Amino acid sequence: MASSTTSSSSLSSGSAAKSSPLCSTVQKPLWSFHETRQRDLKLFLPCIWRLRCLSSKFRLNSAFTLQRRSKGRCKEGLSRSSGIPGTVPRVNVDFQKQTVDPVQVSLSTLHRSRAVTELLLTVDVTEVIEVGHFWGYRIDEKNSEILKRLTAEINRLKLVPLPVHPHPDLVCLAPFVDFDKQSYFRAQILYVSGNSAEVFFVDYGNRCHVDLDLLMEIPCQFLELPFQALEFKICKMRPSARSLVCGEHWSGAASQRFAALVSGCALLVKVFSVVHSVLHVDVYRCSGVQDLVSVRDVLIDEGYAELADECYESRQSHEVLKGVFSKSVENVTDMSVPLPGKDEEKHLIRILLDGFSSRKLGAPNCKVILHGPFNPYELKCHSLTRISKFRSVWIEKESINSVIVSDSPEDLHQRMLVAASLSVNATGSTMLLRETSLMPPVPGLPALLSMLFAPVMELRVDRAGKSYTGVLCGLGWNPTTGAPILPEHDIELAFDVQFSVEDIVEINILRAAVNKLVCDGPNGLKFLGPERIAQLQDNSRQKLLGLFCQLKPRERIVPKWHEKPYEWDQVDPKLVMEQADPEGGSGKSTLLYQLHRLIVLSP
After folding, report:
1. What pLDDT score does 119 carry?
2. What whole-number distance in Å separates Cα of residue 168 and Cα of residue 360?
3. Please, what is the Cα angle at 503 between 497 and 508, to 5 degrees?
4. Taking the model in full, what pTM does it have?
5. What crossing angle do the helices spanning 530-548 and 501-518 adopt, rounded to 10°?
6. CA separation (Å) from 231 to 259, 280, 281?
7. pLDDT given for residue 110 in this prediction
8. Cβ–Cβ < 8 Å for 337, 320
9. Is 72 exposed, middle or buried (0-12, 13-18, 19+ CB in 10 A)?
10. DSSP H or E run through 301
């Protein structure tokens, strides 16, 4: 059990623009910039570029001033005028040292005050990856006109086949049939298999299989417009226990419901943060004439999802966006909004320059070194039983769980790992686990499983006697001597979610149902027909799922350990309610599980 998270851009100089075929006409060029795509940029400037420049023209005119230095060093002052009003980044380029240093970065308050409207986007969903994670594109009038003109320009030309053999990451033109009409669109090859390839349409976000013979070369002028497809994730949401238990991550029913909510209609998204070029958003769909319904709230109300905290990177990005996208000029003049330091600017510029030639989509696929000996993303395990609590735990190298990495370190609830085989070294200091399974991240799962299948348990209560704080599980104690029975294997747990009297009653009902299925008395299985046995099994299964998959998630609490751990008989007998199984026969007991004793809580 344990608890536990590049940017590419191309600069187009004025001289280069004049030689472009698209710019040789009298008309103003449709696109005067190369692709700008941000990856892993945590500063406010890339966030603005990402949101503002997806569908608007972004011109970077470079003016060079060469200054000869005494030691043979040539420094170049590069002044860039971007499409962001009031943004004037300046850098010094040292060709000999191959370094780039920032001179200044300034943002006008006027631009900040106007940029807040761009946190609200109207999008159409084209590809659902999983519940809450999807691709789409903007469908506002301005963006729609750009895509329409782009498609018309592409299909007006005489296209030629690819000059090179198709390979992954190659940007090309691929056909797609829309409204019974085939047109060519910008696409990127994901992988090649035989005589076909799967391509990703970079302006819309969908993908399809295309014959290699149908892929065409993309003229260079069509690479100047940034890819218009956007990747979204619904913020502050995670799978509910029901989804985790009934599916790998999201249940099939949750996936179908989400697809029905976001498909075939325009969605309004409000940007919460930008993490690794993915927009974390609140998603709303129209219900009626003017009503907006949150997709996240619908999934939570129907039991498919539950509220969750955003990761640290997302929260940090949100705070930066709040400072950048101010609602008024007065708010922007507040000096509490931090501007990037020189080191941060150098880091930003370095990432931008390193990514100029990159046109890859999706999350970075480079290797990352995790510095040790401990890392916040790695889960550490310890034994639940008393005798092994302080033993080191090792998992066999061949196991997929040899290094358990948590993708949600902000979730602090207890996790559970089970092993089919366990061995102890000669000194007894280390346990080796084999054939392990990491249980789903259901809050309260270790306590629920322990209370469900423990022979005997004793609930812990707080000083006021108003709530349960933990449980001691094992074989109980000897009423005559007061000594625990097999204390080495007792399990003491502190609750990290709130359990109620109703939960304990449900556990007892489930234990009684199991007793009915396995007892060999006059009500045993040999006296029941197949239909009755199937009915009892289904009832037990539904009760078990109901215990884990409550419609309203259990309230999370801070674990509080009992002041006398592993000590039995710590409850006032006046507060104990004995439970009797009505199916239990007299004389020799045939029950597998005895019912747990309830402790009455104070009002």
Report:
1. 79
2. 10
3. 135
4. 0.68
5. 160
6. 16, 9, 10
7. 30
8. no
9. exposed
10. helix 295-301
DSSP 423: E
Tokens, residue 250: 């999201």
373 cis-preceded (ω within 30 degrees of 0)? yes
Q: How far apart are CA 67 and CA 76, in angstroms?
A: 6
**What is d(CA 602, CA 126) in angstroms, rounded to the nearest whole number?**
54
Residues with Cβ within 8 Å of 59's Cβ and at least 6 positions away in sequence, in order, are 12, 32, 33, 81, 82, 83
Alpha-carbon span 177 to 184, nearest angstrom: 9
Reading the block at residue 80, the tokens are 């860039």
**Span 181-209, pLDDT tens digits:** 899 999 999 999 999 999 999 999 999 99
Whether the CB-CB separation of 584 and 515 falls below 8 Å is answered with yes
User: Residue 64's closest CA among 51, 84, 79?
Assistant: 79
Q: Which of 133, 84, 345 is nearest to 258 (CA)?
A: 133
3-state secondary structure of 229: coil
Treating both helix axes as pointing N-terminal to C-terminal, what angle do 501-518 and 445-453 enclose, rounded to 10 degrees? Answer: 50
* Paired tokens of 191: 């992988």
CA distance 90 to 103: 5
* Candidate ranges 396-410, 492-506, 531-545; pick with highest mean pLDDT: 492-506
CA atoms within 13 A on the CB side of 510: 22
Task: For residue 12, give the nearest of 501, 520, 523, 356 by alpha carbon.
Answer: 356
CA atoms within 13 A on the CB side of 110: 4
pLDDT digits (tens, 9 = 90+) for 267-323: 999 999 988 889 999 999 987 666 789 999 999 999 899 999 898 889 988 888 887
Q: Helix (H, G, I), strand (E, B), or coil: what is residue 273?
A: strand
**DSSP state letters, 443-483:** TTHHHHHHHHH-SEEEEEE-TTSSSEEEEEEES-B-TTT-P
| Dihedrals phi, psi of 552, to nearest 5 degrees | -105, 120
Return the residue matching tokens 């109703």.
502
DSSP 74-119: EEEEEEEE-SSTT---EEEEETTTTEEEEEE----HHHHHHHGGGG
What residues are paired with 217 via a beta bridge?
Answer: none
Longest dimension (CA), the chain: 105
Query: Is pLDDT at 359 greater than 80 in this prediction?
Result: no
Give the CA radius of gyration of the chain.
31
Find all residues with CB under 8 Å of 20, minimum gap 6, and list them. 29, 220, 221, 224
Q: Where are the domains of the chain?
A: 8-111+338-354, 443-599
Q: DSSP letters of 396-422?
A: -TTSTTSS-B-S-TT--S---EEEEEE
How many Å apart are CA 219 and CA 216, to the nearest integer?
9
Q: 392-406: per-residue pLDDT in tens?
A: 999 998 888 888 888
63 close to 79: Cβ distance less than 8 angstroms: yes
Inform me whether the pLDDT recorded for 129 exceeds 90: yes
d(CA 414, CA 184) in angstroms, rounded, equals 51
Contacts 24+ apart (CB under 8 A), 474-477: 476/568, 477/568, 477/569
DSSP state of 53: S
Phi, psi (degrees; rounded to nearest 5) at 33: -150, 155
Question: What's the one-letter identity of residue 578?
Answer: E
